[in-house]
Write a structure and sequence with these properties.
Number of strands: 4
Strand order of the largest sheet: 2-3-1-4
Strand content: 25-35%
Number of helices: 2
CATH topology: Alpha-Beta Plaits
Order of helices and strands: EHEEHE
CATH architecture: 2-Layer Sandwich
Largest sheet: 4 strands, antiparallel
Helix content: 10-25%
């Protein structure tokens, strides 16, 4: 199992969700977040809590899926979130060691 964690522009989230609808997504969590990317290192020096409101708002998309779904989901994210300009976002993929569905007690990929 894998965890996809994608940070995308707020204005592109509807397109990203539509892209997932086309390929099928097992489940999704979307959160509003603020931050600066790796291209903005100059903004990170001397950052204070009061500076949070000046950071760009984005959407964090999290999906736990089967490993064989990764390529298709990554392509869907890239196709729907890309504008070609700096700040389009970033996607991280990590391994998920275990999952358990609380309602049924199913574990592993069967929990998805």
């Amino acid at each position: 199992m894998k965890l996809i964690k994608a940070f995308v522009r707020t204005r592109k989230i509807d397109e990203v969700l539509c892209g997932f609808r086309e390929v099928g997504v097992p489940g999704i969590t979307v959160s509003s977040v603020r931050g600066v990317g790796y291209g903005y290192k100059q903004h990170l020096s001397g950052l204070a809590p009061c500076d949070l409101s000046t950071m760009e708002e984005a959407r964090k998309v999290e999906i736990v899926c089967r490993a064989e779904q990764i390529d298709e989901l990554l392509q869907a994210i890239a196709a729907s979130a890309r504008t070609g300009y700096e700040g389009d976002g970033i996607v991280f993929v990590t391994s998920v060691d275990q999952a358990m569905k609380i309602r049924t007690g199913e574990v592993g990929p069967e929990a998805l």
